[in-house]
């Protein structure tokens, strides 16, 4: 028996491990060790649902991706949960891809690509403050008229959009080298400066990263009440509904009316406050209220009425919502959306199937908050965004080696593909519905 008692641990096959994927019993595998995370999942900072997505599966690569800054610290919590080891000869597919990707990750570490530039992020924050202050100064200095109102609201929307990209940096723990500082900074950015729940954002966004474009696991494709995406969702919806709930064949048209215009001003507003209330996140709720109080105190003397303040605020959110939606969905909706995951799929293959890039340029980098490098962001979620372009050639070479498509599009083509993919999915729904219910 070895000194650490490893050889005395019981060995489990993948068939046995896969049986423990329900809420009452959750096992997962990290580095060939089996862990029972049933009780721990309730304490998991990323949420119990996130662990549930990997129950009965190998979580090694996801564990490395999400815990890069604190991997040794987190292993201390894992040790008491270890219940066994993987049986010998129980290897999963794509071992060569996983090994090469791990080498790439180590290369990125040696190149210092996970080290953030405080100067870069300071300039990002300075830009946000400058835009925010400018939106008020335009109205206070030049007075309120149509021209100043339009300029002001666009400055405010730009500030909030850029703030959205920056809170995304902090939420992924990529601004500071200390995770605690990142979390505090994230709360400051998203709650106090943006009026949104940081806990809600983490709850939703980390699920998206763990299982991108997987129906039932990625909340970003949980939209079948209004929109159908991919090739699987339209077929299933058409077969299960005897009477259509939406004219999905026209979704590429009504997307412009109820998609981006309502996402931030309605859905996000409701969900973020609901989340803070139901989870009893009193500090977040207080900071969110302070944000709205600040907006009202600053705008009311300039605009003169509560109604005028509300109109200004809603228009600003509609602009931001359009900006956010077109950028984020251009990388995902046109890609593969699936229901069943292949067993043991490599992290590289999972992320490349669900993501694509937009061409690099100074404008594209700024406009998208560097999410034009969506592939690199998904592969290395804790890498500071100013280093994506440095690791991109290495990722592209690795994809070429293993025959994986590394897709890069012009910005406008990526936007058009959103509409094209919605039209395709809508037509697929219509054809399936007519065929299935014709009798």
UniProtKB/TrEMBL annotation:
One GO BP annotation here? lipid metabolic process
Q: Does the keyword Oxidoreductase apply?
A: yes
Q: Give a yes or no for keyword Transmembrane helix in this entry.
A: yes
Q: Give the stretches traversing the membrane.
A: 118-139, 146-163, 183-201, 253-271, 291-313
One Gene Ontology cellular component: membrane
What InterPro entries does this protein's entry cite? Cyt_B5-like_heme/steroid-bd (IPR001199), Cyt_B5-like_heme/steroid_sf (IPR036400), FA_desaturase_dom (IPR005804), Fatty_acid_desaturase (IPR012171)
Q: Which Pfam families match?
A: Cyt-b5 (PF00173), FA_desaturase (PF00487)
Q: Superkingdom of this entry's organism?
A: Eukaryota
Q: What residues does the Cytochrome b5 heme-binding domain cover?
A: 9-87
User: What does the UniProt entry say about where the protein is found?
Assistant: Membrane
Quote the PANTHER family the UniProt record gives.
Answer: DELTA(5) FATTY ACID DESATURASE FAT-4 (PTHR19353:SF88), FATTY ACID DESATURASE 2 (PTHR19353)
Stated name of the protein: Cytochrome b5 heme-binding domain-containing protein
Q: Source species, please?
A: Bugula neritina (Brown bryozoan)
């Amino acid at each position: 028996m070895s000194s650490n008692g490893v050889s005395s641990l019981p060995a489990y096959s993948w068939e046995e491990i896969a049986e423990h994927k329900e809420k009452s019993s959750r096992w997962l595998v990290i580095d060939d060790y089996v862990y029972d995370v049933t009780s721990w999942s309730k304490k998991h900072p990323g949420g119990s649902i996130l662990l549930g997505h990997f129950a009965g599966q190998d979580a090694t690569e996801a564990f490395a991706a999400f815990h890069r800054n604190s991997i040794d610290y987190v292993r201390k919590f894992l040790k008491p949960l270890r219940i066994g080891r993987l049986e010998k000869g129980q290897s999963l597919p794509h071992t060569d891809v996983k090994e090469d990707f791990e080498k790439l990750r180590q290369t990125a570490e040696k190149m210092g690509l996970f080290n953030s530039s405080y100067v870069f992020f300071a300039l990002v924050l300075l830009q946000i403050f400058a835009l925010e202050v400018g939106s008020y100064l335009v109205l206070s200095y030049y007075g309120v008229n149509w021209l100043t109102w339009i300029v002001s609201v666009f400055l405010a929307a730009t500030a909030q959009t850029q703030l959205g990209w920056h809170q995304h940096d902090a939420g992924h723990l990529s601004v500071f080298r200390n995770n605690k500082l990142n979390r505090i900074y994230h709360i400051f950015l998203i709650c106090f400066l943006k009026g949104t729940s940081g806990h809600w954002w983490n709850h939703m966004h980390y699920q998206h990263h763990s299982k991108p474009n997987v129906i039932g696991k990625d909340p970003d494709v949980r939209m079948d009440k209004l929109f159908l995406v991919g090739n699987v969702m339209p077929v299933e919806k058409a077969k299960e509904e005897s009477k259509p709930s939406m004219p999905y064949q026209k979704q590429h048209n009504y997307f412009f009316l109820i998609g981006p215009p309502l996402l931030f001003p309605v859905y996000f507003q409701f969900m973020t406050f609901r989340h803070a209330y139901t989870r009893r996140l009193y500090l977040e709720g207080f900071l969110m209220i302070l944000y709205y109080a600040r907006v009202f105190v600053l705008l009311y003397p300039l605009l003169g009425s509560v109604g005028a303040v509300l109109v200004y605020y809603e228009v600003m959110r509609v602009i931001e919502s359009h900006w956010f939606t077109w950028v984020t969905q251009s990388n995902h909706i046109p890609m593969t959306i699936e229901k069943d995951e292949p067993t043991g799929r490599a992290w590289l293959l999972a992320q490349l199937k669900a993501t694509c890039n937009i061409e690099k340029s100074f404008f594209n980098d700024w406009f998208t908050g560097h999410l034009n490098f969506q592939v690199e962001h998904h592969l290395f979620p804790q890498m500071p965004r100013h280093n994506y372009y440095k690791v991109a050639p290495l990722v592209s070479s690795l994809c070429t080696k293993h025959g994986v498509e590394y897709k890069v599009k012009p910005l406008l083509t990526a936007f058009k593909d959103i509409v094209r993919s919605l039209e395709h999915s809508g037509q697929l729904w219509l054809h399936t519905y007519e065929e299935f219910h014709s009798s």
